[in-house]
Amino acid sequence: MKISTKGRYALRMLLDISMHREDGYISLKDIAQRQNISKKYLEQIVPLLSRTGLLKANRGYQGGYMLAKPASECTVAEILALTEGSLAPVACLEGESNDCPRAAECITLPVWRGLYDTIVNYLSGITLQDIIDDYRASQAYDFCI
């Protein structure tokens, strides 16, 4: 499984918004500049995140984006599922039910199901706030005398 640029950039964009939440609505121009990501690319990601209720938008002067819920409630699994679609390592695990005609006798299915469960459990246990807290803690000890 490989996470696409869209998924990685969405995560970076939401982290940037979270880290600057005290500034109110954050413009895509500012995010693009800080993250060194094309503003046009971010414009393609925003609708995915807005229509699912992860982002709030404000148009006009002082417009931009902010998280619709606290960073402590936004998981990496949720973000990647929105941008990547399924996180399943094989097609037969993508839907609600496994419609593969070989599912009953597939010797490798438990391997893929275990991998999928591990991925989802791991990413569901990491919030935007966790990433920010870890980053800030690592930066607290990075100084020169």
Radius of gyration: 18 Å
- Runs in which pLDDT lies below 50 for 5 or more consecutive residues are none
Q: What fraction of the residues are assigned to beta strands by DSSP?
A: 5-15%
N- and C-termini, Cα separation:
43 Å
**Number of helical stretches of at least 4 residues:** 6
**Helix fraction?**
40-55%
Describe the main β-sheet briefly: 2 strands, antiparallel
Find the structural class using helix and strand composition. Answer: mainly alpha
Overall shape: globular
H/E topology pattern: HHHEEHHH
What value does the average pLDDT take?
A: 91
Number of strands: 2
Strand order of the largest sheet: 1-2
How does this structure look, described?
The chain has 145 residues and is mainly α. Helices cover 50% and strands 6% of the residues. It has 6 helices and 2 strands. The protein has helices spanning 5-19, 28-35, 39-50, 76-84, 109-124, 128-139; strands at 55-58, 64-67. The chain has a two-stranded antiparallel sheet with strand order 1-2. Strand 1 and strand 2 (64-67) form a beta hairpin. The longest helix is centred in the C-terminal third of the chain and has 16 residues, at 109-124. The chain is globular, with a radius of gyration of 18 Å.
